[in-house]
Amino acid sequence: MDWLEREHMLEYARRTIEKKAQSCYIDKTENKSMVKIAEFCDIEVFMDSEFDGNPSVEINYLDDNVQGSLQLLEGTILGDFSKYVLPVITAWYEENKNLLIKMWTDHKIEMIPDWE
To answer: Are 51 and 104 in contact (CB under 8 A)?
Structure first.
């Protein structure tokens, strides 16, 4: 591996670790009990363990520190996610839609297996 490539990779890894360490989910609307149910491609997904309101999950994109939400029944994604991140969230949702809705209706949260 070229020295410059190695330095670039190490710097990227350092910044990613710092972002993850500094990143903690902050619910800006009210103090809910949010539980992390998935993490993939620097995206964290949280579900409200009190199951209040419409079926939805909160999304935190670590790389750009963008937060938003995903309405489970409609598949609507709210938040200032980039055009590169939205298709990733959409693909993940499509694959896990039934499980997400089942967790919400059964009021039983579980960690969703790794997704790539």
So the answer is: yes
